Amino acid sequence: MSDQIQFIVEKLNQEPFRKNYNLITFDSLESMQLLQLLNDVLGEIDPKHAVDIREELPEQTAKRMLGLLGILKYKPPGSISDLSAFRQGLVTGSKPVIHPVLHWLLQRTNELKKRAYLARFLVKLEVPAEFLQDDTVADINKQYEELMEAFKNLHKECEQLKTSGLSAAEIRRDISAMEEEKDQLIKRVERLKKRVETVQNHQRMLEIARQLRLEKEREESLAQQKQEQKNQLFHAEQRLQRAQLQLKEMHHAVVDSKPESLMKKLEEEINFNSYLVTEKIPRELDSKKNSTYFLQKVVAEPAMSQSDLNVLEIKINEVNAQINQLIEKRMMKYEPIDSKFSMYRQQASIISRKKEAKAEELQAAKEEMSSTERQMLQKTNQAHELEGSEVLKGDEFKHYVNKLRSKNTFYKKKRLEIAEITAEYGVLQRTEELLKQRHEAIQQQLQAIEDKKGISGYSYTQEELERVSAVKSEMDEMKGRTLDNMSEMVKKLNTMVAEKKASLAPVIKELRQLRQKCQELTQECDEKKIQYDSCAAGLESNRSTLEQEVKGLLEERVQEESNYRYINCMKRNLEIQLQRAKEEVKAYVSPDPQERRKAIREQYTRMILEQENLGKKLREKQKVVRESHGPNMKQIKMWQDFERLMECKRECFLKQQNQTAIGQVIQEGGKDRLVL
């Protein structure tokens, strides 16, 4: 308990409460202060409850708090018999009741905030069945349920986005990086524009380049369409091959079988399919519906914590134990008369289970057969793609094996040739290394000679000049080739543009005609729209008048229903009173004294006699009290005077003791002075 109170004080001293309590001040809080503190914590969880409890009645406060605690799934400690004590303690602000509630709320504040927020939208408003018979109420209730489902989906998406790892800081960084890249690209484009402006006919060349880019994009889209059409053609060929294979199998089945066997096979298939349709699939469908219903019920409830799950597991274990006990009791009360029926039931259940198992095996075998057929078809298609012919059989396969053997011998010969070439390559690589070493040695000797003669670097500069001249000649040739290519490209682009213009000329003519038609149709559409708006306005006015009439009739119907129910209630009350009057007359007239004693008149007469006797006794007591009142008051006054006298004596005695003590102190002080 002390750990619990310490935890509560620590949480209350933190944000957002900041109460500055310690263990003593918290323990010394009164009941109203404790209730206000509990209400503040509940107001932090749900802002609707942030009120002053002094402004509402205690019953309203208790009802409001119990409602929120029920939504938050708080379970008070103790058994069911303690629930009334819990409610009473919550009304009076009892510490043993308030402290566990505060501890439970402060332990899981964030989780409870989320649960309270979801409860505002997911706690379903129960509408009575008689009100749902009204179409308007039923439609509104349906819209309400659809909005609730939409809220569930949006909340799930929001939670997934929160947990997906995309934070606002990362998005801002990405946006800033994109803006920087955009600025860099804009600057780069401006530099390129400045460079291109110096070239002659740059506008025309840019236009041609733009047209080239558009044509390339169109070419890519056409290539993509071509690939899609190829895929569609491939799938269509696969479907055709499957259909041909099925047709071939059907032909084989028809050729090799007789009408009796075909009829028998069809009967077996019909029996199996009828079993699936009538027994197995409806049972599975019912089980799926039940599981879906329970899952929807679980989803509709607010989120559950681990403690709630533990409580549910305990309840499930208790219910399973009760079921097992009931089964044992039933087996103990087993009667031999039902033994035959139980045996037949067991046999029937065993047969039904075997039937279900065999049906599942048959279905699995059919699925496996269909999957193997699909695999076989895929393998045949792969073989067609690789070889371009069907799977080999018989003599063709032998011929193919002989061909592979001849290719194997040819492969071995080529492999020997490759080995000889690799060996020769190794020798050549070694000679290349030796020549490089000799070249380096000669270069060193040449450099030494140049240093002696005073012309160091002559050979290097000569080689560099030769290399630069060769590179320059190559660049000149490349420039010439690029200019020729550019001129050819410009010519090709001009021809392509002319061809495109020629091909687009009829399309443009058709487009002009279509534009004229479009204008005519838009005018007609505008006219029709004006007619529609006028008609809709008239219908809307009629609808509003009809809605007002319907509303008035509905209100009249509600009023008449309330009058009818009130008259029925009055009629029932009058019938009950009439029945009671008849029974009273019957009992009063009855000659039987026992029946007469049951009459209300007799009961009231007995009660009147009892009350009269009680009044006589009370009057006698009153008379005795009046007679003894004077002496008793005198005695009380004497005792009060005696008490004041004793109090006065006590005060005099205390004063006398104080005066004697002061005199002793004065005498001791005089003696000390004399000694000095």
TrEMBL record:
Where is it mostly found?
cytoplasm
Q: Which terms are listed as keywords in the entry?
A: Acetylation, Cell projection, Cilium, Cilium biogenesis/degradation, Coiled coil, Cytoplasm, Cytoskeleton, Differentiation, Phosphoprotein, Spermatogenesis
Coiled coil: which residue ranges? 137-246, 309-382, 504-584
Which residue ranges does the record assign to the IFT81 calponin homology domain?
3-126
The protein's matches in InterPro entries, at most eight in alphabetical order, are given as: IFT81, IFT81_CH, IFT81_N_sf
GO terms in the biological process aspect are:
cell differentiation; cilium assembly; intraciliary transport; spermatogenesis
Q: Does the keyword Coiled coil apply?
A: yes
What compartments host this protein?
Answer: Cytoplasm, Cytoskeleton, Cilium basal body
Q: Which GO terms describe its molecular function?
A: tubulin binding
Q: Which Gene3D superfamilies match?
A: Intraflagellar transport protein 81, N-terminal domain
The superkingdom of the source organism is: Eukaryota
Q: Name one GO cellular component term.
A: intraciliary transport particle B
Q: Does the keyword Cytoplasm apply?
A: yes
Family per record = Belongs to the IFT81 family.
Checking PANTHER family in the record gives:
INTRAFLAGELLAR TRANSPORT PROTEIN 81 HOMOLOG
Write out the function statement from the record.
Component of the intraflagellar transport (IFT) complex B: together with IFT74, forms a tubulin-binding module that specifically mediates transport of tubulin within the cilium. Binds tubulin via its CH (calponin-homology)-like region. Required for ciliogenesis. Required for proper regulation of SHH signaling. Plays an important role during spermatogenesis by modulating the assembly and elongation of the sperm flagella.
- Give the protein's recorded name: Intraflagellar transport protein 81 homolog
Source organism of the structure: Aptenodytes patagonicus (King penguin)
Q: Taxonomic lineage of this organism?
A: Eukaryota, Metazoa, Chordata, Craniata, Vertebrata
